[in-house]
Amino acid sequence: MKAPTTLAELAEAAGLPARTIRFYITRGLLSGPLKSGRSAAYTAEHLARLNRIKRLQAEGRTLTDIARTLGGGSGESAPSATAWWQHAIADDVMVWVRADAAPWRIKQVRTALDGFARQVAPANDETGKERETK
Q: 10 Å Cβ neighbour count for 84?
């Protein structure tokens, strides 16, 4: 590849779907195009990087490991794992909240979830009696 090229041409040269290339850009494995939009342009460096990613995958390495090896492409590292708290609001409602939030924020969220749980609770409890609504 000699000059900047389109995503379709890069995909063909790399032997990868354009969707995969976009995914690699999102993950930080590959830097974005020189220009964005309809006139997006990719260079020989993009193709070389894609070929290196393919070689590393052929060795059985994961994308997270490849991102570490390559330094994350555009300077970003692969997304790190995040712990989440799961709150059952009702039988059919589940809310997930990041576990690394500040304690004051978790208290705010818990208070809001308690109010929401009261709003979406069924009109009858398990005994069949109608519950009190405020």
A: 12
Look at residue 76 and tell me if it is in a domain. Answer: no
Predicted TM-score (pTM) of this structure: 0.52
Mark 32-42 as b/e (b = at least 16 C-beta within 10 Å): ebeeeeeeebb
Answer whether residue 128 shows pLDDT above 70: no
Residues 24 and 56 occupy one common structural domain: yes
Dist CA 24 CA 134 (whole Å): 51
Determine the structural domain holding residue 126 and report its residue range.
82-134
pLDDT of 126 > 70? The answer is: no
Residue 50: give its domain's CATH number: 1.10.1660.10
- Around Cβ 63, how many Cβ atoms within 10 Å? 16
pLDDT digits (tens, 9 = 90+) for 43-65: 999 999 999 999 999 999 998 88
